[in-house]
Amino acid sequence: MPSRTPKARTNHFTFISINSTTELRTSLQLSLNLLDLHPSLITKFLIPEYAPPKYRVEYNLQPLSLIDRVKDRFRLKAVKTDSTKPDLGQESVEVCSTERIGGS
Question: Cβ neighbours of residue 41 under 8 Å, at least 6 residues apart?
């Protein structure tokens, strides 16, 4: 019986950044560093639809060599939110628009 090589396992992790620039910076750095350390990891980064300008600034502060190494496994989604709702939980995550921001 031939031996089977186990399939490479892909792991997924989602980061959700709500509002704070500090939270955005540390979450982005953590996400990129984890991708660099773990080649089987894919991350999705969710940001509010009004945050792309903040995100671009933080993204552009990251080392280009790091961005180049992990950009194929880093996903960004700008999430539409309804500010009239007190709870922006599951409803706002379900209404996502994908937007490629920063990098390539």
Answer: 10, 11, 12, 13, 34, 35, 73
CA gap 31, 12 in Å, rounded:
11
Task: Indicate the burial class of 59 (C-beta count within 10 angstroms; 0-12, 13-18, 19 or more).
Answer: buried
Contact 57, 27 (CB under 8 A): no
| pLDDT tens by residue, 40-98 | 999 998 888 878 888 888 899 999 999 999 999 999 988 887 654 444 444 444 444 44
Task: Enumerate the H helices of 44-102 as residue ranges.
Answer: 52-60, 64-70, 90-94
What's the token pair of residue 34? 């984890």
- What is the value of pTM for the model shown? 0.67
Residues 22, 28: Cα–Cα separation, whole Å? 10
Token look-up 């894919």 returns 42
